[in-house]
Design goal:
Number of helices: 3
Oligomer: single chain
Strand content: 25-35%
Number of domains: 1
Distance between the termini: 34 Å
Order of helices and strands: EEEEHEHEHE
Largest sheet: 5 strands, mixed
Radius of gyration: 16 Å
């Protein structure tokens, strides 16, 4: 039990994911080694129902190079970039980013998540 004024440790948890370009994303296999898509992550607090949506761009190194040649504007947090595409590699990177977002209190975690992923409400007044 937390004392008044002392916030407890909060861990973000990946509760789900989806991708409008490739469904189901966990079964998708690319036709080439040039990969680029947006992944939507459902992230909430461990032990609590509910989640917010966050997006992250996923690339292979070849896909990123080709996207930059096409002058694709990448905004927001750094994308996930893999030498070779694998769903396990994507999940490993997502989970390592979530570990960096552990904090004390929800607002601390939320701020860290917004540095790692694009929050669904980003830029709304």
């Amino acid at each position: 039990m937390a004392s008044a004024g002392i916030e407890s440790r909060v861990e973000p948890e990946l509760k789900g994911f989806d991708c409008t370009d490739h469904h189901p994303i966990e079964e998708w296999r690319p036709a080439s080694d040039s990969v680029h898509f947006w992944l939507t992550l459902h992230i909430g607090v461990t032990g609590v129902d509910g989640s917010d949506l966050y997006k992250i761009a996923v690339f292979t190194t070849r896909g990123l190079a080709e996207s930059k040649q096409d002058t694709v504007n990448l905004r927001g947090p750094d994308p996930i970039v893999l030498e070779e595409y694998s769903w396990d590699g994507v999940l490993e990177e997502v989970h390592s980013r979530l570990v960096r977002c552990v904090g004390f209190g929800f607002s601390d975690v939320q701020e860290k998540l917004r540095g790692e992923f694009e929050w669904e409400y980003e830029g709304m007044a």
